[in-house]
Design a protein that fits this description.
The protein is mainly α. It is built from 14 helices and no strands.
Length: 298
């Protein structure tokens, strides 16, 4: 409950910061939505939906190696329910805990085993997210990478600090649940095979690229054209979605992308795009309401 109020407090201060210091006019949001190019919104929805499905499949892929008879459908449903919890109830940390519990109960496996795969999937997702951003930077323009690190060094330090804290939290959980013993049992060494690692990275890369393209399509829906070479910057700003003390990234994400994409933030267009991105995330999570309450009625 304390974490919930902290998240709401952070969201409250983020709104004040956006309104007072970045001069964003929230009252104009309704008019902007009315003038949206919904063809771009539809493309954004498809891209984000594919990314969501790929994210669910990556988790299933890891779990499948120790439980070959497992099916993909329960993982997709579990992720959908977790998305509902994350967007409409308690945030991402509680949602992750729920999907771990849900899968452990579904396949009658220990909570430790399910937690191991959930942590591994979350850690690899963040790791490959950062690797994808760096790969795109190097691919597009190496000089931009150096300029970017110097210009936004505070933001980059914050992002790497977040990754360090996540790794530290994972280490504490691993020690408390003796997950090292699970790894040493030998059943999970298949995860280290090159073909498995390459497949997981490929799925991660596509999923992450689609997230960035979703943001760009939403920008085009409000007649804002962001060059595709700016995709690494967009993805860096969207890393704020994983900030654990935020409410599904709201507020923190808007502030991050507004600074990183400052040249395109004329009349708060980047902030508007980020808000639309949050709405789209919430829309995709809506089916989770059905699955969540359907299970509770049984």
């Amino acid at each position: 409950m304390i974490k919930f109020f902290i998240k709401l407090l952070l969201l409250f201060f983020s709104i004040i910061f956006l309104k007072r210091y970045l001069s964003y006019d929230f009252s104009s949001l309704g008019e902007i939505i009315k003038t949206l190019n919904f063809s771009y919104v539809f493309v954004s929805l498809i891209l984000l939906l594919i990314s969501f499905i790929l994210g669910s499949y990556k988790w299933y892929l890891l779990f499948k190696f120790s439980h070959p008879n497992s099916e993909f459908k329960p993982f997709l449903i579990s992720c959908t329910k977790a998305a509902f919890i994350s967007n409409f109830m308690f945030g991402s940390l509680v949602a992750d805990g729920y999907r771990v519990y849900d899968i452990s109960k579904k396949f009658n496996v220990s909570y430790k085993t399910s937690l191991f795969f959930a942590l591994l999937d979350r850690f690899l997702t963040l790791l490959f997210f950062i690797l994808t951003v760096l790969i795109l930077f190097f691919t597009f323009n190496l000089s931009d990478l150096n300029h970017y690190f110097f210009k936004y060094k505070i933001i980059m330090m914050f992002l790497f600090l977040f990754l360090f804290l996540f790794c530290l939290l994972s280490f504490v959980i691993i020690n408390n649940f003796n997950i090292i013993a699970i790894i040493n049992s030998g059943k999970f060494r298949i995860l280290l095979q090159p073909k498995i690692v390459s497949l997981y990275f490929f799925l991660s890369f596509i999923s992450i690229i689609f997230i960035g393209l979703t943001f760009q399509m939403l920008a085009m829906a409000i007649n804002l054209h962001i060059p595709y070479l700016e995709l690494p910057k967009i993805l860096t700003g969207l890393l704020a979605n994983y900030f654990p003390l935020s409410y599904s990234g709201w507020g923190v994400r808007e502030i991050a992308v507004s600074f990183i994409l400052k040249p395109y933030n004329t009349n708060g267009q980047i902030i508007t795009t980020s808000i639309l991105f949050g709405f789209l995330n919430s829309f995709i999570a809506l089916p989770g309401i059905y699955f969540y309450f359907k299970k509770r009625k049984k």
